[in-house]
Design brief:
With 141 residues, the chain is mostly beta strands. The chain has one helix at 70-82; strands at 10-16, 19-24, 26-28, 32-39, 49-57, 60-65, 87-95, 100-115, 128-134, 138-139.
Amino acid sequence: MAIVEPVVGIQFLVQVDDTSLGAFDTCEGLSCEVEVEQRQEGGNNSYVWQLPSRINYSNITLKRPLSKDTEKVAKWIASTTTESRRRTANITAMTTDGTVITRWSLLDVIPVKWEGPAFGPDQAAVLTETVEIAHHGFLEQ
């Protein structure tokens, strides 16, 4: 049996259709939840049927320090105001040496929030940006 070592130093490359948005340090919200309806069957007192109904997908939040790629995010967000079509996105988790760990393909991606850095004389921290995206589910690889 092979021992699987934890992966350290991950970056997340994000691509929307044919446009790379660059690498992000943090990726949160890759999750989904299946709603379950309960149905009781007459004469069956052993259990209640648990029937899956719809799947809810969480918004995904991506964070990174400001870079030249910030301009790509701004252009993508601006394009959503003139184009109504939703796009496909890929988030690729990879190590700093370029080894791909896994990839998620997302259906009908739209940006829902962008948050830039807070500027001020008392801000000694790294300037970061946050992008939040919504989607309609995962695509098969």
